[in-house]
Specification:
Distance between the termini: 11 Å
Number of strands: 5
Structural class: alpha/beta
Number of helices: 5
Strand content: 15-25%
Largest sheet: 5 strands, parallel
Amino acid sequence: MKKIGLLNGPNLDRLGKREPEIYGSSTLSDIEKKFQAEAESCGCEVDCFQSNHEGALIDKIHVWEDEGFSGMIINPGGLTHTSVTLRDAIISSGLRTVEVHISNIHSREDFRQKSLISGIATAVVAGMGMQGYLSALHYLVEIN
């Protein structure tokens, strides 16, 4: 059975409360439940993890690598634009990685338009809301 990780970064625990005009009304729990149900229908095992702490995200990537996960979907939140260490952890893990953003970062403030993760990701999904997570899952299932 394929194992895929779902990693959500800082402030994504505030979905449903934080700027719903940008991020929608779904909570992170809503996204994870839908993601897990979809993964089951695809025959995948998933592990969902969120942290507001960069080191905890990096530690989880190392665990998934060590446990033989085949891929990872990551919404790095604000770390998208700033974290070289998160980027390095993704590269060193060898996990096929899809970067997901709920909003279209390319139509937002200038500082949000630069991603340190996109260049090393297998694919990038932005601006599709919750559906972006499911699209990323289907993509990883197909290519792994």
